[in-house]
Specification:
heterodimer, A: mainly alpha, 77% helix, B: mainly alpha, elongated, membrane (chain A)
Chain lengths: 260, 67
């Protein structure tokens, strides 16, 4: 356990040194706050667009506060996912390339703690950024529209946070399987896109797929209940553990670039 | 548009503008001071300045060569 804490602290130091700990929360806050403001100013933006014929009248109904917050979640589902994939794409492959992993793993360090420390650091920074960003979105929705019940907001926060952690885990998995960091990021994003599309196309067959998490988070916001969320949460946890196990196996088999 | 006046909206948005400026400034300083960039420095300065939110993200993700 103490060894794991040392590795975790090393990952934390890396996050600070590479300034990820500064820019990622800032970007998430901007991302979360932008959507309510854009929605609020939408009539003005359209009115000033300038390519409307004289006398055009556009009536936009004021969206419900929970819908605005659900749109904010969608922002995190696109740009947020991309950022998570970008920060975690080099976790294993980068260290393998630079030889750091070989240097650490000749010492009596368990492969499992090496990978899980990295994973825990990614999940921590994702959680910090997402809570701050979603909090900003919630604050601006409350200021410009109406307050969303904090229970619903917290429920959707946990559901969507799990989806984001799942993508982070997928990126670590592909980062340990593939040589290039960019390839890992884009394979993980592709898998995420495929999962969500497949889940929306085959809702019956894939009722338990992790791809449902984003939709469940929106449902929690707009209707107050996310029916059938427990099996999805369970399956997602199983998938995360399996992905971590595969990355440990891959690292054990190919600990350095010479062995690939 | 009737419930909140223009000034109040500005007061609300001000911290966000400050954050955006902070992000641009941090990435610009890091870009100018860095000696080991992926590609020409002037290209990264333009990316940071022109791509409001994406620019700094791209710089942080791809701009620097990790040592």
């Amino acid at each position: 356990m103490t060894q794991w804490m040392v590795l975790y602290r090393k990952e934390w130091l890396e996050l600070i040194r590479s300034s990820k700990l500064i820019w990622m929360p800032v970007v998430f806050i901007l991302l979360g706050a932008m959507q309510p403001i854009m929605t609020y100013m939408m009539p003005d933006i359209i009115a000033n667009a300038g390519n409307m014929p004289e006398g055009t009248i556009i009536e936009i109904p004021t969206p419900h506060a929970s819908e605005v917050l659900a749109q904010t979640l969608q922002q995190f589902g696109t740009l947020g996912l991309l950022i998570i994939a970008l920060i975690s794409m080099g976790t294993v492959s980068g260290e393998r390339m630079s030889g750091t992993s070989a240097m650490i793993l000749v010492k009596p360090v368990a492969y499992t703690s090496f990978v899980t420390a990295k994973w825990a650091a990614i999940v921590t920074i994702t959680a910090i950024s997402f809570v701050l960003g979603y909090g900003a979105g919630w604050y601006y929705t409350a200021a410009l529209f109406d307050t969303v019940a904090w229970q619903d907001a917290a429920g959707s926060l946990l559901l969507f946070g799990l989806w984001l952690s799942f993508i982070g885990t997928l990126t670590i998995l592909f980062s340990s399987l593939l040589r290039s960091a960019a390839a890992a990021a884009f394979t993980a994003l592709g898998t995420a896109a495929l999962l969500s599309i497949a889940t929306s196309l085959l809702p019956k067959a894939l009722a338990w797929s992790p791809g449902k998490l984003a939709g469940l988070a929106s449902a929690q916001l707009t209707s107050g209940t996310a029916s059938g969320m427990w099996p999805v949460i369970g399956i997602t946890f199983v998938c995360i553990i399996a992905a971590l196990a595969i990355s440990v196996w891959s690292l054990r088999k190919y600990p350095s670039i010479e062995a690939v | 548009m009737d419930s909140i006046s223009q000034e109040k909206l500005l007061v609300l948005i001000a911290p966000l503008i400050a954050l955006q400026l902070l992000l641009t400034l941090i990435s610009l300083i890091m870009c100018v001071r860095s000696k080991d960039l992926n590609g020409p420095k002037i290209m990264w300065v333009l990316i940071i300045l022109l791509g409001s939110l994406i620019g700094p993200v791209l710089f942080f993700a791809f701009g620097r060569r990790s040592s």
